[in-house]
Amino acid sequence: MTVSENLAYPLQVRKQSKQEIKERVARALDMVELGGFDGRFPAQLSGGQQQRVALARALVFEPQLVLMDEPLGALDKNLREQMQYEIKHIHENLNVTVVYVTHDQSEAMTMSNRVAVFEDGVIQQLSTPDVLYEEPQNAFVAQFIGENNKISGEVTEIINDQCIVKVDNGEIVKALKVNVDKTGDRTTLSLRPERVTLNPAEGRLVNIFEGTVIELIYLGDHLRTRISVCGNDDFIVKVPNSAGRLKISKGEKVNVGWTHKDCRALDFLP
Questions:
Q1: Are the C-beta atoms of residues 171 and 258 closer than 8 Å to each other?
Q2: DSSP 8-state class, residue 230
Q3: 234 — phi, psi (to 5°)?
Q4: Tens of pLDDT along 22-40?
Q5: Using alpha carbons only, what angle is made at residue 199 by residues 210 and 151, rounded to the nearest 5 degrees?
Q6: Three-state SS sequence of 91-122
């Protein structure tokens, strides 16, 4: 069958009128940017184009539920990003429920109302994207979603929702108690790179430590800085490019700091 015949088939089975079929097929082709491809056969399409036809066919009859298993994997980066938004808009416009399987974390965060993070077939956390990123409930989720600094240590004191952690190099860190039960527990501290301040003013933050700059990567909107601090040689700080270029160099000693609320004490992840 041609592309248009493939798209028309689910509508013919549902006894739609010819005019309705024609309009829906044209709309579906435009949705996946294949207008003008209606007369082509599968062998005349690339793998990515075939995948888009399959997506359009699944959506053309406006089902109540769509199951998608990495449907954008064969597409190039720009088209994949565009299709992410298209599927999101389809969901909003058609009020269709989409269960979407992906290993691409940014794809999951971009498209979803709710995200379930699985490990070995078990749901580790089911939350909205912002809660999943800002408030991971265990160390696996913190490491899996987004870039994350982890520091290992032992809980030495618990005070209400805070805890004091002696990290493996001997430094003392104040953190938010999330997934630890008692003093003596081993813990993995989770800290997002954008929540770390480079060379903070003295007394401004509760956690301030000296480190050594190992690597600097200029990424336009921010400077990705890898620092050896608190026993972690892969500690990342994202410095926004908002006030001109940062004048630091490889091998330089710097201070890094963060609040206790941005540092989450989670279960131990070796």
A1: no
A2: T
A3: -115, 35
A4: 999 998 898 888 989 999 9
A5: 45
A6: HHHHCCEEEEECCCHHHHHHHCCCEEEEECCE
